[in-house]
Amino acid sequence: MNVGVIAVQGDVSEHADAIRRAAATHGVDASVTEVRDAGIVPDCDVLLMPGGESTTISRLLREEGIDGEIRAHVAAGKPLLATCAGLIVAARDAKDDRVATLDVLDVSVDRNAFGRQADSFEAPLDVEGLDEPFPAVFIRAPVIDEVGEGVAVLAEWDGDPVAVKQGPVIATSFHPELTADSRIHDLAFFGQDHADPDAGDGEEARA
Hints:
About 25% of the residues lie in helices and about 30% in strands. The chain is built from five helices and twelve strands. The strands form three sheets. A seven-stranded mixed beta sheet has the order 2-1-3-4-12-11-10, with helices on both faces. A three-stranded mixed beta sheet has the order 5-6-9. The protein is globular, with a radius of gyration of 15 Å.
């Protein structure tokens, strides 16, 4: 499995470790590449877009020409996991003109709705597709305040969606990579509705 981690900013190494752990449980060798330039994404079977600062991430994706490649990746049915600021960038509407969203996920978001860094918290979260609660870490997290018809809500906190799925895209308000629990990465890339990426040469994990 060729894995691309968008590495213009954010928790890059943590995501790389998480996808390697998830892949290992399925006997799959995950070759991870940090994506900072155009031309890498087309060779990736799956993508991760970490948290960070959404205005900076979106600007750098546009300047480096990576934004269009991510849209093409999703349009081809290849999985994308977007977390925290990655969710904001993936969304249809960030309610902030400074963020050039990718519009690969039909949601609108309220940036930093959970408060400042000092308001960060961890909570056991019931996530559709997981048997046990997930230890979700919320850091300056966005709230999903509008969900399109084609978007499935996988988890809520205080009545607000914090994990959603649309086609090959799974996005979370929280940081799943900041725990030793790799089940969100497993769900995004090895869920029941994904083909086995180790099924043969050229096979892709698809929604």
